[in-house]
Specification:
The protein is α/β, with parallel strands linked by helices and 339 residues long. It is built from 11 helices and 9 strands. It is globular.
Length: 339
């Protein structure tokens, strides 16, 4: 076996969960499945389990992200749990410092704080979140600086009049998340770990990683650049079954393009009757880095993906309608790594 074939074995694997609500399912079932998935993921050797903040999405149950992190952390013992991510412009930096200070106190040494600068929703919902609609995302560095000062008052230029209790004095790893170059460059300049969303922005993956590494400056948190890349993986016993299961993810992206909001659909035998040629091309572009297939196919394509990106860590995102099939997919990836 060559050195290239050993990349996955030598690379930590983690898990991104949007806590999907499926057609015919309920939010309560989604919460139960998240807990069950976390328990298995820890047993199978996944390094961290992240949930993402989305709002006004009938197919995603992780809107109250900090509470979902607590739910997952309570069901596990050693695996790191965190946000992938918290959309900081939606929140007061003080509130996030207090929430994650609470989580880090309840689950010491296990909590990650991944931060994004997008709203994670539409403009109308952003208004309902009391987000300043005049913001463009350029304010994110200042919001991030304020948040970091709540955790470490010495990071700022004076004694703060407002303190985060709990939160102050805690060493909680902060990650920046991105799907383009803005956060990649900022993460590099600040010496923070960086997570890239290749699962929906594949065309920007390599440019963003290059930007991050080129601009990296060592910091108290990180001496060398550390990049984690999220990718869609759907694994099954056969290539045909994996492609069938992947139609749920394809329908989900198609619905997003059409601004149709509904739970994660059941898989279908034929997508060609559901989309136009133009829509198919656009969905395939969004999902271009996705890895779909049987054990052999997935193993080969993950190795190629790691070779291309030189990712320090791989985060697996799997949108499958049936809970048992979803568990099986994550198990196949873990088995490939651990064999």
């Amino acid at each position: 076996m060559s050195g290239e074939d050993l990349r996955l074995k030598n690379t930590p694997i983690s898990l991104l969960d949007l806590v999907p609500i499926v057609e015919g399912g309920t939010v309560a079932q989604a919460f139960e499945e998240a807990q069950r998935l976390a328990e298995h993921a820890e047993e199978w050797g996944y390094h961290r389990y992240w949930v993402a903040e989305h709002h006004n999405m009938p197919g995603i149950a992780s809107a109250a992200t900090s509470l979902m992190i607590q739910h997952v952390a309570q069901a596990t013992r050693t695996m790191r749990v965190g946000s992938g991510g918290i959309m900081l412009p939606n929140h007061s930096s003080l509130v996030i410092a207090e929430q994650f200070g609470t989580l880090a106190t309840l689950f010491p040494g296990r909590i990650d704080l991944g931060l994004g600068r997008a709203p994670g929703t539409d403009r109308l919902t952003a208004h309902a979140l009391r987000r300043n609609l005049g913001q463009t995302g350029q304010e994110f560095p200042q919001q991030l600086e304020e948040l970091r000062q709540y955790f470490d008052p010495a990071h700022g230029d004076g004694i703060p009049k407002v303190r985060a209790i709990p939160g102050e004095g805690l060493s909680i790893p902060i990650w920046l998340l991105g799907s383009s170059g803005f956060s990649a460059k900022l993460a590099g300049e600040l010496g923070l770990p960086f997570a890239f969303a290749s699962h929906f922005s594949p065309e920007n993956t390599l440019p963003a990683l290059r930007l991050y590494r080129d601009h990296f400056q060592p910091s108290a948190q990180l001496a060398e650049p550390y990049a984690m890349v999220a990718v869609n993986v759907i694994a099954a016993e056969t290539n045909d079954k994996a492609r069938f299961l992947a139609t749920s993810m394809e329908q989900q992206f198609l619905n997003l393009m059409r601004d149709v909001r509904k739970p994660l659909p059941a898989p279908v035998e034929n997508m060609n009757v559901r989309w136009t040629d133009t829509e198919r091309a656009l969905v395939e572009q969004r999902l271009d880095s996705s890895i779909v297939g049987d054990r052999k196919t997935v193993s080969s394509e993950i190795e190629a993906f790691l070779l291309e990106t030189e990712a320090d860590e791989l985060m697996i995102h799997t949108q499958i309608y049936n809970a048992a099939d979803r568990l099986a997919s994550y198990r196949i990836v873990a088995d490939i790594k651990n064999e």
